[in-house]
Amino acid sequence: MEELGTQASDLDGKLARLRGKLEGVEEAEYKIDALSNILDDLTVNLETFREQKAVIDHVAAKLSQIDFEIKRAELVTQSLRDERQLASRIHQGIQSLRTSKSKKGASPTPLTLVKSSEPTAKKEDEEELEDTVIGDYSS
User: Fold this and answer.
1) Has residue 105 got a pLDDT over 90?
2) Does pLDDT of 130 surpass 70?
3) Separation between Cα atoms, residue 23 and residue 42, nearest integer Å
4) Distance CA 109, CA 103 (A)
5) 90, 133 Cβ separation under 8 angstroms
6) What's the pLDDT tens digit per position in 81-98?
7) What is the pLDDT at residue 90?
8) Are the CB atoms for 133 and 94 separated by under 8 Å?
9) With left for phi above 0 and alpha for psi between -120 and 50, is residue 114 left, alpha or beta?
10) CB count, 10 Å around CB of 89?
11) Max CA distance (Å), the chain
12) Is the pLDDT higher at 115 or at 3?
């Protein structure tokens, strides 16, 4: 009987160790399930991040294109300003020429762009206009 008692107590000890190991396995399974859920969440978040990154890359490319177009427009605007200033100086030169002609008693004649065999202005008037326009433009 004593032998059965010792065997029973040995079996109780082994059963307690097995129950402890079973609890450890169950706890490990619970932790594995939690980690699996975390991994699934990370996968979803990573996919969302990749989608957002693609959108951000697209927006960055569009912004770069818009920036290029803005710089191009600024250059065109500056070119138009320069042309307007040049046209203004030419206009002022023509007005100055007409004023000097009217002071000399000659009637002002409009300048034409059509070439003819006869000059519309005297050589000295042309040189005066050229000096006025080129002088203003070079300064």
Assistant:
1) no
2) no
3) 28
4) 13
5) yes
6) 999 999 999 999 999 999
7) 95
8) no
9) beta
10) 17
11) 152
12) 3
* Tokens representing residue 28 in the block: 């490990």
* Tokens linked to 22: 């079973």
Q: Mean pLDDT across the stretch 116-139? A: 50
* DSSP state for residue 111 in the 8-state scheme: -
Do residues 115 and 71 touch, judged by C-beta distance below 8 A?
Answer: no
Tokens standing for 138? 């070079």
Measure CA 8 to chain center: 81
Q: For 78-107, give the DSSP string.
A: HHHHHHHHHHHHHHHHHHHHHHHHHHTTPP
Q: What is the pLDDT of residues 11-69, one digit of tens each?
A: 888 899 999 999 999 999 999 999 999 999 999 999 999 999 999 999 999 999 999 99
60: DSSP letter: H
Q: Which residue has the tokens 């979803």?
A: 44
What does the block give as tokens for 112? 């034409």
